[in-house]
Here is the input.
Amino acid sequence: MTNKTAPSRRKFLKTALAGAGAAATVPLAAKADEYITPSMTTPGKAFTPYGMPSGHEEVKRLLRPPGISPGTGGSLSPIESLEGMITPSGLHFERHHNGVPDIDIKAHKFLIHGLVDKPLEFSIAALDRYPRISRMHFVECGGNSGANAGSPTPPQLTAGGIHGLISCSEWTGVKLGMLLDEAGVKPDGKWILAESADAAGMSRSVPLKEAHEQGILALYQNGERLRPEQGYPLRLLMPGWEGNLNVKWLHRIKVTASPTMTKDETSKYTQSLKDGKANQFNFIQPPKSIITRPSGMMTMNGPGYYEISGITWSGHGKIAKVEISFDNGSTWTEAEMPGPVFPQCVTRFRMPWEWDGKAVVVQSRATDEKGNVQPTRAVWKDRVSSVQFYQYNAIQAWQIGADNTVKNIYV
Amino acid sequence: MFKTIAFLLAATTPHFGAPADPNLVKAWDRSIPPDGTGLPPGKGSVSEGLAIYTEKCVMCHGVNGVGKPADQLTGGVGSLATANPVKTVSSFWPYATTLFDYIRRAMPVTSPHSLSDHEAYALTAYILSIDGIVKKDAVLDAKSLPKVKMPNRDGFIDAYGATKR
Here is the structure.
């Protein structure tokens, strides 16, 4: 199967045609040279200080039309073109509320204050001296997959176009609990407010207990300093929690007695229900799985062998199993998860498949170690208001046609 | 013995934090919770707010806050339990303090932190007056703002249960 949007196939065809033309004019006797490619006969390029993908690759984030300012909105990770479990840092999805700030790491300050014995400030150089931990965790936007929640007809997009607000990295930083202990949280301190130094003043409240136990002040992403789009030079990481809570460009934590009730934990990122009420503090991202090969907008190569492959994750812990159905959800077969399987981390699943070339619906269903299972779309929609789209985690179904098309469908 | 020392070092912080500069804390600590703690001096009226809104906000939020291209601010009160819920500041936001806080930290989108506290009070008063949440002659300040009762004040459920600890 091929990805329609990828250029490699076009390029291959062009090259093949050029080759055919050349072959017609070159005498048969000279054929042996054709097998000696330019890469074998010409010295390669010199060293570079920072490596980039091959010029033959055009894998890109999908940019959504900007909102009210050029940096308001998001870009989606092209999950259909990626492999393994780690997202390359330059392809990590983006969701900003007023652009990517340009922050000088030498000037950046991080403040802990509020209900503490000793209000403290830290330079990044000071934070760099603390003991570090490294963890592999996903970050998923609370609005990921919202296109399937909101659109009455299935949007015909790539897997990344629908579900690309998910990425997974190795994050390295300092345990937030250590710094909270250093400041000395007072007995009435029950929440923290984490605030960004960006032009949106993005801020969210997190319960102190979980912030202390699970929070990581991330300084590094996939071995290098955080990318600007991911919060350089400092981001709060709450593993498995809604992306918006993983506050980027972090410059302040205030210990409070109760939640501050910021814009993004009241007017946004709450879950509207049918009776008009709204669930607030939906912190943890529910389990999800997406088959990325084959997936929307791809073209099958006709009957024969395929490896079905995809990504799965849950904010509640490890993924216990992913099952695949080829018969509209009547029967399910467990896929392989060759590993590693980490908690709050993207896991790759795979299943060998012999396609007979007939129309078929392929679905995947994840179950996490706490027993949470992906619902059908109908079950998910029934729980919430018609305008609700946050934390949509219903089963994704791809309809593969006898004409080799792969389409997004609702089942 | 070495093992013991290593364990103790791992469990405690090396203490590299510096005492926070009180001026830095004062400058950054602008978040306003529902009880209004931290609200600055100053005040603003509905009519002052309309003038500022007309100059700095209407191009994105529309006349009377009807929205487009930016978020709809007004209308939709009473619509949340219907088949077509309209979520706006008026219909959905539970606290008026959040509106003041957000205006002051993030608006206008092209020049955040450019509004004075006075202007932020006035804009809050004007926006809340459009659907009658405050009266047309209202003046908001540190005392009156936290007392404003939003229509959807009791519309939220703590799904995680952390507020009761």
